Amino acid sequence: MVEKQKDNTAHPRGWSPELMKQMDIKVWSYLEEYEKEKEEILEAIKNVLESGQLILGKHVTKFEHDFSKYCDCLFGIGVNSCTDALALSLQALDVQSGDEVITVANTAVPTVAAISSIGAIPKFVDIHPDNYLMDVSKVEKVISKKTKAIIPVHLFGQCVDMDPLLNIAKKNNLKIVEDCAQAHGAMYKGRKAGSIGDFGAFSFYPTKVLGTYGDGGMITTNNEALAKRVMGLRMYGMQGSYSSLEPGRNSRLDEIHAAILLKKFNHLGDYISKRKKLADRYDLLLKGTSLKLPKVVEGNRHIYYVYVVRHPKRDEIMAKLKERGIFVNVSYEWPIHTMKGYSYLGYKEGDLPESEAACREIFSLPMYPELTFEQQDKVVKILKDILEDIG
Q1: What's the DSSP call for residue 3?
Q2: How far is 27 from 60, CA to CA, in rounded Å?
Q3: Hey, which residues does 147 pair with through a beta bridge?
Q4: Beta-carbon-side half-sphere exposure of residue 246 (alpha carbons within 13 Å)
Q5: Is 125 helix (H, G, I), strand (E, B) or coil?
Q6: How far apart are CA 71 and CA 200, in angstroms?
Q7: How far apart, in whole angstroms, are the C-alpha atoms of residue 251 and residue 234?
Q8: DSSP line for 263-311
Q9: What is the mean pLDDT of the chain?
Q10: CA 210 to CA 269: how far, in whole Å?
């Protein structure tokens, strides 16, 4: 059985901000990174405040250019979140109320919230048990006459198997929006995440591989007409004047966050390299334990947004780690098709067995660039002790 969410206002598994502060080692922290980059971050904010332009200025324009180029895309459109990046992408592709969009249930709620926000209907497929990514072989079974698009979620830092998905989309005249919230710099057979489908949707939420100090998002595409339409949709449907050509919304990446992201973008390669080193050490140090370790799909470049392990006694392990001052996390504890907020979709427990099983057993170990090897060694030692203790 999938554990029911008891209280939507509660922190997962009782982790309050106050308790997290007491933990010796956290699953994620920005404070060490901020201390290291403080001067350039504060300089970036100062430059914006003194520029006289706070919305859609030169910093947004430059970051859109630089980040989209990094993703091997011709166009980038800064928006206020990945949720809006997904919703605006679907709207630009003429996905309308009552249309169906295929995705997965083991994702962050925003993926599905974006679909429902434009009146479309989320349809779920199960995942592959080895890597927790969309099982592309199951996609065609849920395509109907109402299906208009697919959102593959590049979960945890690596890409869905895109070539067969592209073939399915072409065969059925469907559009693809890549959910790249956790995949900045990830690659699939030499292609960057966000450059493979019709659109890519990125998040710059603070926890991300490239994150700001608030919300932010980006849409990437190689289609000029689609890029132009999204640029209008993010600003009330306007195109160059204060006259709306179609219903849009207010969804703009602001200048301060763009300036911060420009500074942090210079460190993206280093962020990814440090994450990879930490992941390699976890692989080596935890090899031979009863944990199921991450599996990198052949042809993928995994950037380790999170380092996800699996164990049938997950809850017991997490409780014992908590007692020893180690804060770990579950991404995600409740598959979306079992949530009360999406009960209207008509799914029931058992419909997506691999997604449900994974949500019961996976958890994420501490992973962020400034995590030291000494801290990582402490996590591994305590974790090994716990695994030996529980048998």
Answers
A1: P
A2: 30
A3: 100
A4: 11
A5: strand
A6: 9
A7: 5
A8: HHHTTHHHHHHHHHHHHHHHHHHHTTSSSBPP-PPTTEE---SSEEEE-
A9: 94
A10: 10
Q: Which residue has the tokens 């971050």?
A: 41
- What's the CATH code, domain 34-265? 3.40.640.10
The mean pLDDT value for 365-387 works out to 97
Burial of 21 (0-12, 13-18, 19+ CB in 10 A): exposed
| CATH 3.90.1150.10 assigned to 12-32+268-390 | yes
Taking CA atoms, 122 is separated from 92, 173, 336, 342, in Å, by: 17, 18, 10, 9
pTM above 0.85, yes or no: yes
Closest listed residue to residue 73, CA positions, set 189, 191, 163: 191
| Contacts of range 170-173, beta carbons closer than 8 Å, 24 or more positions apart | 172/140, 172/143, 172/147
Distances from the Cα of 128 to the Cαs of 20, 59, 141, 351, in angstroms? 32, 40, 15, 14
What DSSP assignment string belongs to 36-51? HHHHHHHHHHHHHHTT
Residue 224 has pLDDT above 90, yes or no: yes
354-384 b/e (C-beta count within 10 Å ≥ 16 → b): bbbbbbbebbbbbbbbebeeebbebbbebbe
Is there a contact between 106 and 332 (Cβ–Cβ < 8 Å)?
yes
Q: Is pLDDT of 18 > 60? A: no
Percent of residues, the chain, with pLDDT higher than 70: 94
Report how far residue 102's alpha carbon sits from residue 94's, in angstroms, rounded to the nearest whole number. Answer: 15
In sequence order, what DSSP letters do the residues of 127-138 get, joined into one string?
Answer: B-TTT-SB-GGG
Domain segments of the chain as ranges: 12-32+268-390, 34-265
Closest CA to 178 of 65, 93, 99: 93
Give the neighbor-by-neighbor strand order of the sheet with 191-192.
191-192, 187-188, 300-301
Is the pLDDT confidence value at 7 over 50?
no
Tell me which H or E stretch contains 176. strand 175-179
Cβ proximity of 178 and 194 under 8 Å: yes
DSSP state of 338: G
Task: Tokens 């992973």: give the residue.
Answer: 367
